[in-house]
Specification:
Blueprint (H helix, E strand, L loop, with lengths): L1 H22 L10 H10 L9 H13 L5 H26 L4 H12 L2 H6 L9 H13 L1 H8 L4 H10 L13 H7 L1 H16 L3 H6 L13 H8 L13 H14 L1
Helix pairs in contact: 1-4, 1-5, 2-3, 2-4, 3-4, 4-5, 4-7, 7-9, 9-11, 10-11
């Protein structure tokens, strides 16, 4: 019963945010790179660098299983679900950090309906799917201390992240100077944390594997090791950095302020 009381508010935050996303869901292809991401999800193509492998794989599975509307609508629907999941996990993170339920719910829904997050959620742009993972990782690190006391040893995520996320009372945020001591005492846990990091990055082998099949969209043709590295590091975008004219910089700043 106590567990249900803890989970129920996160579920309500998910339902409210998803209901609004569903009501305002774009039924077809949206602007910017959404068409590219929909095609890459359905055909398992290679989107623009550095790619969204997990989004492509899960969107494809979702669109195959949930046969509702057009392919574009299904991928948009999956994006809305992922965005709502991110919001509920953000609520759980705030709760793990000691925030009251009311304040956590207000903050999570503020995030859900903020201009930037809302614009990035229903359209399939790949970015919102990284947010649930980040929130879940941070929540695991924040609760690592409590579970360490309960089960006798810290979780790998807590070992990797807790020193930088949860300061001790009366002390500022600690720099990552603690992990070496923890590594000496609990080498096994540190190895597990490293393996979790490697596991996350391993998803990027998707790009060279799918590139060999010559999908309709094969950005950068990352079949070779050199092309794959250029793809992962988004080398093609580097020449465009810090080269915008002043008028465009000012225009972007105005748009940024208007979105706040």
């Amino acid at each position: 019963m106590g567990r249900l009381r803890r989970i129920a508010p996160a579920g309500m935050v998910f339902i409210v945010s998803f209901a609004v996303y569903l009501r305002t869901l774009c039924p077809t292809v949206f602007v910017e790179g959404t068409g590219e991401n929909i095609v890459c999800a359905w055909t398992l193509g290679v989107p623009h660098p550095p790619g969204f492998p997990l989004f492509c794989l899960l969107s494809k599975a979702f669109a195959e299983v949930v046969r509702v509307g057009t392919i574009a609508y299904r991928v948009n629907l999956f994006s809305a679900l992922a965005g709502a999941a991110a919001v509920s996990l953000f609520y759980a993170l705030l709760g793990a950090l000691g925030t009251s339920r009311l304040a956590a719910a207000a903050a999570a829904l503020t995030l859900a309906f903020s201009a930037t997050f809302w614009r990035q959620t229903p359209p399939p742009r790949g970015r919102r799917f990284t947010i649930p993972g980040c929130a879940q990782t941070a929540e695991g690190a924040a609760t690592g201390g409590h579970r360490a006391r309960r089960f006798g040893k810290p979780r790998p995520l807590a070992v990797a992240l807790r020193p930088c996320l949860r300061p001790r009372p009366g002390r500022p945020l600690q720099p990552p100077a603690t992990p070496p001591r923890l590594a000496l005492r609990r080498a096994g846990t540190t190895v597990k944390a490293a393996l979790l990091i490697i596991l996350g990055f391993s998803l990027h082998v998707y790009a060279p594997i799918r590139s060999r099949s010559d999908p309709p969209i094969d950005w950068g043709n990352p079949e070779t090791l050199s092309n794959w590295w250029r793809y992962l590091t988004a080398e093609q975008y580097r020449g465009r950095m810090f080269h915008l004219p002043l008028t465009e910089v000012i225009s972007n700043l105005r748009a940024f302020v208007a979105d706040l």
